[in-house]
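Supplementary Methods. Inverse-folding protocol.

Structures were first reduced to a discrete structure-token string of length 285. This string, shown here, constituted the complete conditioning input.
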């Protein structure tokens, strides 16, 4: 017998009519056209380049203004990520007869699947949230923390919008797993940013990067299962979309591993230096 909490969450995050009867229709659903996705990414890249070039003449927002804005932005995305992770998880398990069917459905969609129902509702919300995350870059520029505006940051924010759009357009298999894992990582990440913004800097910054790396490794492991189902069965929906997703994840994994080695290997080296050696750790955000 389901608990009252489970029943309540299931209704509001899975069975509510707006969610249960959701249908993604290209060109009709909010932000569902190819042109919208293309303009969003192009606009983000252009604005980032222009603002980065003009950073010296932009008004400087002091910590008293910037920190509350960053705190609200991070808290909103943290809570939204939590809701998406829970909503998509409940959507996976609510209509499956057993654990095996539940797992298989999250890995391999049938070819004839229509983009309707709770899973596609949360995929659409997730897609829109990636556009909201463009605000991360604006806050970095306004805070003049230009050293944080790396290629990895801009590449990730721009390309993830394309990836999420393809989830919907191609009815891509495996996106429920990617959505739950990525949203869960973002709960940790934006929770960290929120705490930093309100003046309580946690000691688990490294955990954020480690979780992101584990997320990509897990996606490759489960992709093997999806490829098996695609090969021996009648096929899995959205295979070309998965190919783009896999290539993107591989590039991100390489970039995150490089980031990890540069930021944390040096920290270990500095800590291992004997006292009085003349070396000191570089201060990082």
């Amino acid at each position: 017998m389901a608990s009252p909490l489970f029943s309540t969450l299931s209704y509001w995050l899975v069975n509510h009519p707006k969610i249960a009867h959701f249908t993604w229709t290209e060109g009709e659903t909010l932000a569902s056209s190819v042109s919208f996705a293309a303009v969003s990414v192009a606009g983000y890249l252009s604005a980032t380049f222009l603002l980065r070039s003009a950073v010296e003449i932009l008004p400087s927002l002091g910590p008293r203004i910037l920190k509350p804005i960053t705190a609200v932005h991070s808290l909103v995305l943290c809570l939204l990520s939590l809701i998406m992770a829970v909503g998509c998880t409940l959507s996976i398990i609510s209509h499956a007869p057993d654990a095996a069917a539940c797992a298989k459905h999250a890995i391999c969609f049938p070819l004839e699947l229509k983009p309707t129902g709770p899973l596609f509702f949360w995929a659409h919300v997730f897609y829109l949230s990636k556009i909201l995350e463009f605000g991360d870059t604006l806050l970095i520029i306004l805070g003049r923390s230009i050293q944080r505006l790396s290629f990895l940051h801009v590449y990730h924010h721009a390309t993830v919008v394309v990836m999420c759009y393809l989830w919907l357009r191609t009815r891509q298999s495996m996106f429920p797993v990617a959505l739950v894992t990525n949203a869960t990582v973002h709960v940790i990440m934006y929770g960290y940013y929120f705490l930093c913004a309100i003046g309580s800097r946690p000691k688990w910054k490294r955990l954020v990067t480690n979780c992101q790396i584990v997320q990509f490794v897990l996606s490759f492991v489960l992709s093997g299962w999806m490829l098996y189902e695609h090969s021996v069965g009648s096929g899995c929906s959205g295979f070309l979309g998965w190919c783009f997703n896999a290539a993107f994840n591989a590039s991100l994994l390489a970039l995150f591993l490089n980031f990890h080695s540069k930021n944390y290997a040096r920290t270990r080296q500095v800590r291992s230096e004997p006292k009085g050696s003349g070396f000191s750790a570089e201060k990082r955000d």
